[in-house]
Every structure is written in structure tokens, then in C-alpha cells.
């Protein structure tokens, strides 16, 4: 869930700033969630640690995909793809669908990378990845990142 407003997503450097925004801003998409009152009460008492597992850099996959597949970080690319998909849906970004939607090159890449996720890629994975259009995939990722970043509003 995101506290997007007017098709834009405000981002803050600290979780407590995001919580304060969600609880104090007069209009954002979270307010339409059933039981918003209960959720907001829970949010006011919650604490989200700022851990590496809570951080994502959507700019890493395009750079990583330009490298030789032997140096790819499949888990990172898959997690970034999940976040990008969630942002695409939350912000109703139809313009991103050709890049991330079902059947797109990045969707097929996601399927391919998930086969090796959680472990070290095997030789057959690397062989398959070598045949991919790395420049095209990196370019599609970068376009996706640029479109998402155009919808973000940085605070703090």
C-alpha cells in the first residue's frame, strides 16, 4: 500500500516521516482503504526499522543488466521488479505496462531470473542469460525507472 495522492508518490528519507505524512495529509489513496481509522491508529504506534532489506534502488538493475550475466544479481533485479510493478499499479501508470506488463521483455526476464533466485546461478542459467538482449533489457529498465521517478515527490 502506498500513500499516493493525485497520481504521485511522496517519498521521505525516514519511515517515521512517511508515517507522519500518511497520518496528517488530508487526501491520499490510503484513506480509501477499508478500516482506515483502525489502520491509522496502528500506524501511529508502529515502528519500521530502516534496514537494508527495506531499501530498494530501482537504478541498479539497468546498470547490472549491462554487465556480463555472470555478474548479475538475480535476487536484487527480481525484488526491484516487484517494487516497480507495485508502483506501476498503485500509481495507475498505464504508460509503464508495455515495459513491465505480462509478456513484456522485462516480465520474461523476471520469469527467467526467478528460476535461479535464492541461489547461485547455474551454468545453464548463465547460458540462457547470455542469449538475452542485455542492452534492450537495460534500456527498458531505465525507461521504466525514469517514468516511475517522474511520479515521485521527494521530501526531506
Can you describe what's shown?
This protein has helices at 15-24, 36-45, 60-66, 74-90, 97-100, 105-114, 123-130, 134-149, and strands spanning 9-11, 152-154. 19% of the residues are buried. The longest helix has 17 residues, at 74-90. The chain has a two-stranded parallel sheet with strand order 1-2. It contains eight helices and two strands. Helix content is 53%, strand content 4%. It starts with 8 loop residues before the first strand and ends with a strand. It is mainly alpha-helical. The model has no long low-confidence stretch (mean pLDDT 82). Helix 3 runs antiparallel to helix 8 (134-149) and helix 4 (74-90) packs across helix 6. The protein folds into two domains: 9-50, no CATH class; 56-154, no CATH class. It is elongated and about 50 Å long.
Q: What share of the residues does DSSP label as strand, in percent?
A: under 5%
Helix content bin? 40-55%
Helix count? 8
| Number of discrete domains | 2
Compact overview of the structure:
With 156 residues, this protein is mainly α.
Task: Give the topology, please.
Layout (H helix, E strand, L loop, with lengths): L8 E3 L3 H10 L11 H10 L14 H7 L7 H17 L6 H4 L4 H10 L8 H8 L3 H16 L2 E3 L2
Parallel strand pairs: 1-2
Overview features:
elongated, 53% helix, two-stranded parallel sheet, 156 residues
Amino acid at each position: 500500500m502506498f500513500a499516493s495522492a493525485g497520481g504521485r508518490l511522496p517519498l521521505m528519507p525516514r519511515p517515521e516521516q512517511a508515517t507522519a505524512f500518511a497520518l496528517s495529509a488530508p487526501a491520499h489513496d490510503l484513506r480509501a482503504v477499508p478500516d482506515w481509522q483502525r489502520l491509522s491508529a496502528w500506524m501511529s504506534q508502529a515502528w519500521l526499522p530502516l534496514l537494508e532489506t527495506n531499501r530498494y534502488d530501482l537504478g541498479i538493475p539497468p546498470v547490472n543488466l549491462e554487465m556480463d550475466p555472470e555478474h548479475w544479481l538475480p535476487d536484487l533485479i527480481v525484488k526491484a521488479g516487484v517494487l516497480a510493478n507495485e508502483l506501476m499499479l498503485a500509481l495507475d501508470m498505464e504508460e509503464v505496462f508495455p515495459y513491465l506488463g505480462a509478456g513484456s521483455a522485462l516480465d520474461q526476464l523476471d520469469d527467467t531470473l526467478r528460476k535461479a533466485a535464492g541461489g547461485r546461478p547455474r551454468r545453464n542459467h548463465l547460458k540462457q542469460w547470455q542469449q538475452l538482449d542485455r542492452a534492450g533489457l537495460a534500456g527498458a529498465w531505465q525507461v521504466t525507472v525514469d517514468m516511475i521517478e517522474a511520479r515521485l515527490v521527494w521530501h526531506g
